[in-house]
Amino acid sequence: MTPKLTHTNPKILASGEGESHQLLTHTVVWKITTEDTNSRYAMFEMTDTVGGSAPAHKHPWEETFYILEGELDIQIGDRYETIGAGAVAHFPANMVHAFKIVSPVARVLIVVSPTIAEAFYREAGARITSFPPDPIVVQELCEKYNLQPQS
C-alpha cells in the first residue's frame, strides 16, 4: 500500500534562506523539514569555522554530508579522511562517526533520515545555549534520542 502524502507544497529557497539557529558553534539553516517531506527526511545547511566539530558518536538516524565549501576531517568507523568541496560522506545509522572542520570556514549540506534527527537538532539548539555545554543537558538529550558518545 502506498502511503498517502499529506503535504504537497513545493518549496524554493534562495541562498541563505531558511529558519536558522545555533547548535554549539554550528549555524544550522533548515532547507527542507519533516513537514516538507511527509516525515521522510530533512535537510539543513551547517556553517562553522576551523575547529568546529562533533566528537565520535553514533545515533539511530542516517546522515549524509555534501561539502559545499571548505574541508573537514571525517571519521566513519575506523576510516579517516579529509574531504573538501564536492565530496560526500554518508554515515549509516548506528555507525561511529565524527568530523572536524580544518579550513577557515566550511558549509555542509546535511540530509538526515528518519526525521527524529530534526527533533534532536532543534531541541539541542534550544537547550544547549553555552559552550562548553551543560553535561546534564547533553546527557538528557543523548538518552532521549539514543545518541551514544564514543571514546
Automatic annotation (TrEMBL):
Signal peptide: none annotated. InterPro entries: Cupin_2, QDO-like, RmlC-like_jellyroll, RmlC_Cupin_sf. Gene3D superfamilies: Jelly Rolls. It comes from the Bacteria. Residues 46-106 form the Cupin type-2 domain. PANTHER family: PUTATIVE (AFU_ORTHOLOGUE AFUA_8G07350)-RELATED (PTHR36440). This is Cupin domain-containing protein.
